[in-house]
Design a protein that fits this description.
Layout (H helix, E strand, L loop, with lengths): L3 E4 L16 E4 L6 E3 L4 E5 L2 E4 L4 E6 L2 H7 L1 E3 L4 E3 L8 E6 L5 E3 L4 E9 L28
Antiparallel strand pairs: 1-5, 2-11, 3-10, 4-9, 6-8, 6-11, 7-9
């Protein structure tokens, strides 16, 4: 599938790192490094603008290495870039560590996964089809 992209940054286009990768790394596009204090949130620009076909979204997810090694994650994860959005892809980062964390230009800060979705029409009813699980919620299946 071809997707139109504008890259205003000086970095290469996002790409899959391996043949089995679901996501492509997004890079920070910064004039100077950004330091996130503990629990601070900030939108980090990427310089990327995309035009997805209808029925697709771009899911923006944390990078596992940044999360475990440095405590950097995304405020709303996964974030969604809708098919009709044409603005710059911005990454809402948060520092969950106890130490200030520096983000540099070109650093890989998030993953982008392109996924298909369906829109639905609601069908109001009085009852729902029964299932084995029923209304069992969190922890309903036991602890083993």
């Amino acid at each position: 599938m071809q997707v139109q992209i504008i890259n205003k940054s000086s970095h290469a286009l996002p790409e899959y790192q391996t043949a089995g990768s679901a996501g492509m790394d997004l890079r920070a596009w910064l004039k100077e490094p950004v330091v996130l204090q503990p629990l601070e949130r900030r939108l980090i620009p990427t310089g990327l603008y995309i035009a997805l076909p209808e029925g697709f979204e771009a899911q923006i997810r944390p990078r596992s290495g940044l999360a475990i090694k440095r405590g950097l994650s995304l405020v709303n994860t996964p974030g969604t870039v809708d098919a009709d959005y044409r603005g710059e892809i911005m990454v809402p980062m948060i520092n969950l560590s106890n130490e200030p964390q520096e983000i540099s230009d070109g650093e890989r800060i998030a993953q982008m996964v392109i996924a298909r979705y369906e829109q639905i029409d609601w069908e109001p009813v009085e009852t729902l089809e029964e299932t084995l699980r029923g209304a069992g919620g969190f922890g309903h299946s036991g602890t083993h």
